[in-house]
Write a structure and sequence with these properties.
Blueprint: H1 2-27, E1 34-35, E2 40-41, H2 50-55, H3 57-69, H4 73-86, E3 91-92, E4 95-97, E5 103-105, H5 114-130, E6 135-141, H6 144-147, H7 161-173, E7 183-185, H8 188-193, H9 209-222, E8 235-241, H10 244-249, E9 257-261, E10 269-272, E11 277-279, E12 304-308, E13 316-321, E14 338-342, H11 351-357, E15 362-368, H12 369-372
Parallel strand pairs: 6-7, 6-15, 13-14, 13-15
Antiparallel strand pairs: 1-2, 3-4, 4-5, 8-9, 10-11, 10-12, 12-14
Helix pairs in contact: 5-7
Length: 379
């Protein structure tokens, strides 16, 4: 009996020593401001006040701070994944460990915000009704688990794709008296038809360049434009890409992704953030030396990007987007005199003035279906 008590006492003392060691390490070492692995800023020490303590805000912030600044955080994430895999877990930190080494973003019915989705659909409808002189189209990219459902682990719940798309399509149509004539670019069939090919990354939530190319083909067909065969022109620029889903689980057994670029016709001028940064390429190749290599496309996400091409056809496209559009834009350069890209998460300009000044003739909303149900589209 005494031996048992001594064992428990020793375990308790060891736990307290480890806890104090962690606390001392956190408080007496410099905070990390950014995690390259997770591609996000980390929380600094929260400010203490009696009011924050009473409201519970301080403790919430302190918990987040400790999680972000935990010593050897990346190592612990990897060890945690290994231990959970040994217990048979296939759902870790919002990521499914799928078949054939695929990591798939979890998205369940409880995580789907149908109200926000409805609000965003209505916002797009109102935009189309306001700018009736424009052709407005919507392209919604399925999450990988919707298309590659055969890669999901057994009994892994996912949102019902058909129901979500039915809500989007029905909502955009409205009734005949208020139908703004929005063109919905339905890419589900073409992606599903190529699901055995490399259309989504294994370690990242985005579609690959080839997946974006398939989306472009469907967009061109429905828009009445010639479809260029570009599949053979894809050029591999990296074989060691490990993306956002890998960063969540740090699964050592995952095979790196390959990243491809597509040559685009002619020269172009690219201006970021209302002309503050200017370049002559759509690809920021220096990003290939960083953790988040997907930022090679359009140099990541920016509030506003203007791309001027060699075309002189009077066509000026405005794209409202999330990061899925970044790999899509290079396929459009032969069709427009200028392409303007706005990320509403960061854009703070006057949209009506922007549309007028840039003589916009067409608008395209290009979002991943999960983003469309989470972001708030405010014009």
């Amino acid at each position: 009996m005494n031996q048992n008590k001594n064992g428990k006492r020793a375990a308790g003392v060891l736990f307290l020593l480890v806890l104090w060691a962690v606390l001392l390490t956190v408080f007496f070492t410099s905070d990390r401001s950014f995690s390259e692995n997770e591609n996000r800023y980390l929380m600094g020490k929260p400010e203490f006040s009696a009011q924050n303590l009473r409201s519970g805000e301080f403790m919430d912030d302190f918990e987040t701070y400790m999680n972000d600044q935990f010593p050897l955080r990346d190592l612990w994430i990897s060890v945690k994944t290994d231990l959970l895999r040994l217990t048979g877990r296939t759902d870790i930190n919002g990521v499914y460990l799928g078949k054939d080494g695929c990591l798939l973003q979890r998205w369940t019915e409880s995580e789907l915000d149908r109200h926000r989705l409805a609000q965003n659909i209505e916002a797009i409808r109102k935009f189309a009704q306001t700018y009736k002189d424009q052709d407005v189209s919507v392209l919604v990219v399925p999450v990988a688990g919707m298309v590659l459902h055969g890669k999901l682990p057994r009994h892994a719940p996912m949102v019902d794709q058909e129901q979500v798309y039915e809500q989007i399509i029905t909502g955009l149509k409205g009734n005949q008296r208020t139908d703004p004539g929005i063109q919905f670019i339905d890419i589900r069939k073409i992606l599903t038809g190529h699901k055995a090919e490399y259309i989504y990354y294994r370690t990242d939530h985005h579609w690959t360049t080839y997946g974006a190319y398939l989306g472009y083909k469907q967009w061109a067909r429905q828009s009445g434009l010639p479809v260029r065969d570009l599949a053979g022109e894809l050029c591999c620029v990296s074989k060691d890409f490990k993306g956002s889903l890998y960063s969540r689980v740090l699964n050592r057994d995952v095979v790196s992704d390959e990243l491809f670029l597509i040559p685009y016709p002619g020269a172009c001028s690219v201006r970021y953030q209302f002309g503050k940064i200017q370049t002559d390429t759509l690809y920021a190749r220096e990003r290939l030396a960083q953790k988040d290599q997907y930022q090679v496309f359009l140099n990541g996400n920016h509030p506003e990007i203007t791309i001027e091409t060699e075309q002189n056809n009077g066509k000026h496209l405005l794209i409202f987007k999330d990061s899925f559009a970044n790999a899509f834009v290079p396929f459009l350069l032969s069709e427009y005199a200028s392409i303007h890209v706005i990320d509403l998460r960061y854009f703070r300009g006057n949209l009506a003035e922007y549309i007028g000044e840039n003589q916009i003739t067409e608008s395209l909303f290009l979002y991943n279906v999960k983003s469309l149900s989470e972001e708030r589209l405010v014009f």
